[in-house]
Amino acid sequence: MSKRILFVCLGNICRSPLAEGIARDLDRSHSFDSAGLSGYHRGERPCKGSLAVAKKYGVSLEGIVSRPIRYPKDNDFDLIVCMDSQNFQDLLSLGFEREKIKKLGDFGFDGEDVPDPYYYVGMEGFERVYAMIKECTVNLLKTL
User: Where are any strands of DSSP class E within 1-144?
Assistant: First the structure.
């Protein structure tokens, strides 16, 4: 049975669009989307670093634009996968069902947060984040 999965980060321009793109490339049997907890970047394409690392590894981010999370509408997703502990707490405070929320790091990094790549210099952060998201997404998809 096909599942609907939503990836969530703060702005929906770096981590969650990468997760959506990687998941779409790996699995066509489920539906994937992404959103941000803030609306600061509404309508924007993924950031240059995410676009560059995705292109390097052959992942398409075509058609992905930032959008803010919507409660209760987005609670209809089967699974809501956030990038860090603060995202998790923010989703709970908005009213999303705890049972539907998972941290991406729980699928490969012992619950470690997927860090915001902007805290690194140059492309190092985007490379690290891409590797984490790819490994965790592969493992997540094995559980569906």
Answer: 4-9, 31-36, 79-82, 101-103
Q: How far apart are CA 59 and CA 103, in angstroms?
A: 22
Distance CA 144, CA 140 (A): 7
pLDDT at 121 over 80: no
Using only C-alpha atoms, the chain has a radius of gyration, in whole angstroms, of 14
Q: Which residues of 53-72 are buried (b: 16+ CB within 10 A; e: fewer)?
A: bbeeeebebeebebbbbeee
Structural domains in the chain?
4-143 (3.40.50.2300)
Residue 6: strand pairing partners: 33, 80
Report if pTM > 0.90: yes
DSSP state for residue 68 in the 8-state scheme: B
Render pLDDT for 12-24 as a digit per residue (tens, 0 to 9). 999 999 999 999 9
Q: Identify whether 68 is preceded by a cis peptide bond (ω within 30 of 0).
A: no
Catalytic residues: 9, 15, 116
